[in-house]
Design goal:
This protein is an all-alpha fold and about 160 residues long. Helices cover about 90% and strands about 0% of the residues. It has one domain. Helix 5 packs antiparallel against helix 6. It is elongated and about 50 Å long.
Length: about 160
């Protein structure tokens, strides 16, 4: 019962707030304009920091939070693309599905740093885990950004 109460009490701080903050920072009306400056760098830092915070509650809460966030983000992007392009392709849905796995991998990288922090009480491992997860997330977004840019400009 205690874990359920902890999970419910942190929904706003760890789930709703990052989604709202992400949308405030990026702005869905200027999606493509804002993509390269904000989606690649700023938003992964916000998302990964919120995942790191959930690790302080418990690992199961962090996993549930990460999965919930990733699934909500999946549906937000699918809806956004439906509005922008009038529909979505199977390739887009498959690509966005990989993002759910990406979020879990980034959480695992942070968990490794968090676990080492708990063993040694050395805060640098928190930073290493955070930077590792955030770097992977930024690299993924940069790759996706290049694909989006190639479709918009027909470079490839």
């Amino acid at each position: 019962m205690r874990r359920i109460k902890e999970t419910l009490s942190c929904i706003w701080l760890y789930l709703i707030f990052p989604i709202l903050l992400t949308n405030i920072v990026a702005g869905t009306s200027a999606f493509f304009h804002a993509y390269f400056s904000k989606h690649i760098f700023i938003i992964p830092m916000i998302e990964e920091f919120s995942k790191l915070l959930t690790l302080f509650i418990s690992v199961p809460v962090a996993v549930v939070y990460t999965l919930t966030f990733a699934v909500i983000e999946f549906f937000l992007y699918v809806r956004l693309m439906e509005n922008l392009l009038g529909g979505v392709s199977l390739y887009f849905i498959q690509g966005r599905s990989l993002c759910i796995i990406l979020h879990l991998v980034c959480l695992y990288i942070q968990y490794l740093g968090f676990r080492k922090f708990k063993e040694t009480n050395n805060q640098k491992f928190l930073l290493y885990g955070y930077l590792g997860g955030t770097t992977l997330h930024i690299a993924w977004n940069a790759g996706v950004g290049l694909v989006v840019l190639s479709f918009i400009t027909n470079i490839f």
